[in-house]
Every structure is written in structure tokens, then in C-alpha cells.
Amino acid sequence: MTELRGDGAPTHEYRWALPSVLLGDPGEGRVRRSTRDWIVDTVMFLFACGLTFLSLIELQDQHQPEPLLAVEQVTGALSCASVWLRRRWPVGLAVVLAVLSSYLELVGGASVVALFTVAVHRPFKVSGPITLLNLITLAPYVALRPQSDLDRGWTAALGTAIVLTVFAWGIVARARRQLVWSLRQRADSAAEEAKRLERERIAREMHDVLAHRISMLSLHAGALEFRPDAPPAEIARAAGAIRTNAHLALQDLREVIGVLRHSAPAGDDVVPDRPQPTLADLPALVEECRQAGMVIHLDLRADGAPEGLGRNLYRIVQEALTNARKHAGDVPVTVAVEGTRGKGLSVEVRNALQARYGSRIPGAGAGLIGLTERAELAGGRLEHGATPEGEFLVRAWLPWPVEATQEDDA
Hints:
Layout: H1 20-23, H2 35-61, H3 66-82, H4 90-100, H5 108-121, H6 124-136, H7 138-144, H8 152-226, H9 232-261, H10 282-291, E1 296-301, H11 307-328, E2 333-340, E3 344-352, H12 366-377, E4 381-386, E5 391-398
Parallel strand pairs: 1-2
Antiparallel strand pairs: 2-3, 3-5, 4-5
């Protein structure tokens, strides 16, 4: 999670995306100003000059000594010019102007701008003491430079109100900017999380589809390897199945890569996902495996399941049959699907533990882990392993809400 620095600026990648006027990071060394920075600094400079000019008019009406008036004018002009340094040395500038304002009146406008800058761009542990210093310097100013129209009490009260108002305004501006940075950070984090989840979904689809196709290729290739004397018709059928599954695997891979590479221009519609299998496609999957030489008994006693629910169950059966081809050879497989609305949808895939070790297709076990995650994400459960009867069992249950419809995509 991105941390905010003491000046309220983000610590890393979010920094480049924010205008420098929002960052307000005086930093150290040379400061590069954007167009907005120049506008803001110009407004601050004119504001300080305006306050200084108003104070100068009032000072002339008080008939101050000429030497003091000359010092006031020089320091007032320099303090207004120093406003342009507020981004580079905000704390130092605020301290110097606060000390000068303890006696000189025409530095008051620039001192207000410097205090506001520190309150916006520095934490309370820095801006608080600077504000306290400004309040302390009111005492010698009130004692040494009494106003003709106001007594000392009203002068102190007015000065205190101005300092606290400027400080509070800066604190509010700082809190608002930190809130904006936090919201942007959360939005960026949410976008990254969405991208990660989408990549994981695509990776699961790639594994489910390609593992099925490649296992079919391996099965037919193994048949050609161990039956070189098979009849020409059977060899031709196996070669045709290899070509078909290789073509389908390449097509599936091309579609997935196309999704990963796709970047829709502004205003264009997002490329839709290719049609996903549902529970109605399960008999076609079983028939495809039968043509590859597997012996499968399908008991399907469920109909009308929502698309998302049917897709999850289809992928579970597909991966279970893929594992059966990898590790159990020609052993018969039983697939039982049963479910009704409101009670859930369950599936059991069983096969005897009679592996052909000489032709076993390698696997890392990631498929069963992925199936477990898929079932849990859908709100269901999945268990697998050997049974006391000497079978390997994959059993899954997925929730089927009463209010679910055929168009629902869980």
C-alpha cells in the first residue's frame, strides 16, 4: 500500500500521475513548476503584494518615522519576492518571516502565505510549531507597534484569528489532498486486482482446455507408438484425431492470447469472450473422449442449470477425465451428475486405480488444485483421492440457488 510522505506526497509510483501543485512537494534543490504551479504561485505572489500594499497605506497614515518607513518598504518588497521560494524552502521562509513580523508590519502578507504553505505541505509536527511561533511573535508586535485605531487587546485578538484561520485552512486543504491521493491509490489497486483476477481466470481456462487437448494428442500418439501394426483405417483415424485436436488446441491458444493482447481503443466495444461450455455440452465432451478410446458411463440427471454453474461443472468433469486418461489408461470411468434447483449440483467421477505406468502422461497436480479453487470460488466444495474400494474419486458439489435462472452467470 502506498504511504504518504510527511509533506503529504506519495512515496512512489503514484507521484508521477499527480499534478505538482497537488503534490506541493517543495523538496530539496531546484523545483520544476508546471503551468498550474506558475498560476498558483502568481496568485500567491499577488495576494501577498495586495496585503502588503494595504498595510503600506495604513502605515503611511500612522506617520511613522522616515527611517522605519524605508526599512518597512524594503523588507516588504523582499518578503513579497521571497514568496517565489516557498516551494523550495517553505519551513525556513516561514520562520524568517515570522521572526521579522514580530516588529515589521509589511512582511505580514508574505508571512501569511508562508504559514499556509507549511500547513498544506508539512505534517502537524512541523506546521504546529511554526503556527505557535507566529502566535508568539504577535506579543512583541502588539507591544512595540500599537495601532492608532485599535487597542492592544483587539490587535492581538485580530492577529491570533488571522493566524489560526490560515493554519486551519491549510490543514483542511492538506487533508483533502491526502484523501484524493488515497482514493486514487485505491482505484489503482482495485484496477490491478481486477487485472490479476482476470489473468488467473484466463490461466485456469488455458489449463482446462489445453490439458484436455494435449492429453488427447498424447493418447492417440501413444496408440500409434504401441500399435505400429494396426490396420490402415485405424491409423488414419488416430492421425485424423491428432490433427483435429492439434488444430483445436492452437485455436484455443490463439483465442486466449488474443484476449491477453487486446486493448480496445476509446469508444470501442470490448471484444466478447468466446462461447463457454455449459452443462448441455457435457454429452459432447464424453462422446469426444469415447472416440479417443476411453470407456465412459455417463449418468446425467440434471437439466436447466445456470450457465455459470454448468460451466464450472463442465470444467470439473473435463479435468477429471483428463486426469483419468493420464493416469488410468483404458480403465472405465463413471461420471454421475445429479442436481435440482435449491439443492445444488453434484458430480462424481470414478475410475479404478490401474495405472499404465509405462505410458503415463506427466502432470504436476495443478489441475486438481485449480478445480478445488474453482469450486470454492463458486461457493461449493470439491474432494478427491483414493477410496477403500480401490477407486480414484473426484466428488464436487456446487450451490444451485432457487432464484437462479438459465441466464445467471455465477
